Fold this sequence. Notes:
This protein has helices at residues 42-50, 80-95, 156-172, 187-192, 207-225, 248-260, 285-289, 304-312, 323-327, 331-337, 363-368, and strands spanning 12-14, 17-19, 23-25, 56-63, 100-105, 123-124, 134-136, 142-144, 149-150, 177-181, 230-234, 266-270, 296-299, 318-321. It is α/β, with parallel strands linked by helices. The chain has a single domain (5-368), classed as TIM Barrel, CATH 3.20.20. A hairpin with a 2-residue loop joins strand 1 and strand 2. The chain is globular and about 60 Å long.
Amino acid sequence: MNHNTDILFTPFDLRGKIVRNRIVMAPLTRDRAIPNIDAPQLLNAEYYAQRADAGLIIAEATQISPTGKGYAWTPGIYSAEQIAGWKLVTDAVHQKGGVIYLQLWHVGRISHPSLQPGGILPVAPSAIAPINQKTFIENGTFAEIGTPRALELNEIPGIIDDYRKATRNAMEAGFDGVEIHAANGYLIHQFLADNINQRKDIYGGSVTNRLRFALEVTEAVANEIGAERTGIRISPVNKGNGINDSSPQSIFFPLVRELDRFNLAYVHVIEGSTQGPREFNGFDFHALRKEFHGPWIVNNGYNLDMAVDAITSGYADLIAFGRLYISNPDLVTRFRLNAPLNEIDWPHVYGGDAKGYTDYPTLQEQVRK
Length: 369
């Protein structure tokens, strides 16, 4: 591919918010919130500010409520301390001229009683346990995920309201918008997947019923802050966290058609499985893209050539990079110069301090040496 890479560095109108290039920093769980209060801190602000050259930063998955938590030291957006912590982050990014959204997260069954308030069971559409699945708990070890508790019908409006409140809190914390996490086998994706959602009420069974929770969350969030500041992330063929839908096409094409009616800020699509291969199992992402008439962000294993090709062809509007942003705070500059990229310090990706988090050198720092 010999496309001109300049297109990657052109501004883009994200439903009224101009982002300065087509490069997106994908949401990345790093487990570095303050323990016990799950609030971001100055270290997190430094990390995001280092990466503020991205056209758009989507901050890491953030639990909307205490019951939405699935891993130790992940941040929340439901308490005053958490809002204040995130304000440190958004101020730091905005001072660098960046745009930042917050990803709203409820893990559903991918949790452990020790991470839940009062040691209660995690909730899910149905009481079906993931097989051989573990999560990271507060004592720094991995614990087996057990069988969750099925949500009662009368509890679901409360969870939708938690998304709405989290959205309002995100605005108070200074975010430019929010992304609804409907991917990777967490709660919204659990409602979509027929191997996990075996409900007999209006939230289970037919495609219309399995779409209901995702669309009600989207409506609540969009009504709170406007659809133009609301994005959503989906992963149609990701089998992570026990997802094994019998027919992803039959649920995701109708979902995207329904999402199109909201005039959202964007749809963010993981092609394949996160941290996994770009295997689509016959799923046609280009056809799916045609169902949505707004901005389309693609993600998973993209390199510079693939990114330029996706935008030049008109398939995608923006390209999200995850792993490359872990180790390259100045990814935009490195792409512009086609410069070498830093390798990831894998032992220090999750948890810990500045090591493997804010200590990756920029190209400028490497040249000085």
